[in-house]
Design goal:
The protein is mainly α. 59% of the residues lie in helices and 0% in strands.
Length: 143
């Protein structure tokens, strides 16, 4: 019964853009890896897009592939997203890695990058309690 409803309103792209900025300021240090998985997944996708747009993927290497794999593992490793969204995350990640490995291939589109950034925001919102990156987990960030 309006205005009271038990279903939540879907998040808009404008919300996600604003939220990205808020989360970035809270979670991502000016240099080096983040202290939390929330910050690190944001940093990973932002670094990948920067490498694509600023350098045309010329500096892409195995560490970048590993970081994208980490991004996918984190976003698809729990029940935050439905199977269709997880599959799209995997497809976009594969497109990014493929273009990173062969600069002659088409670049990911703005829609691809937006999708990945927005899913990072959604994942962070779904995990409001900070998840620290522990040294014993074997992850070494990529500058």
């Amino acid at each position: 019964m309006w205005p009271f409803t038990s279903t939540s309103k879907p998040k808009s792209d404008e919300y996600r853009k604003r939220r990205w900025g808020e989360l970035w300021k809270q979670l991502v240090p000016p240099t080096g890896e983040a202290e939390t998985w929330q910050g690190e997944i944001m940093r990973v996708i932002a670094n990948a897009e920067d490498e694509a747009n600023r350098n045309g993927f010329v500096n892409w290497d195995d560490e970048d592939d590993r970081d994208i794999d980490l991004f996918v593992e984190r976003l698809c490793g729990d029940s935050t997203f439905d199977s269709a969204t997880k599959e799209k995350v995997r497809r976009c990640a594969a497109k990014i890695k493929k273009a990173g490995g062969d600069t002659e291939l088409p670049m990911p589109t703005k829609e691809d990058w937006d999708f990945m950034h927005f899913r990072a925001v959604d994942w962070c919102d779904a995990h409001p309690k900070r998840i620290p990156i522990r040294e014993d987990q074997g992850y070494v960030g990529h500058e």
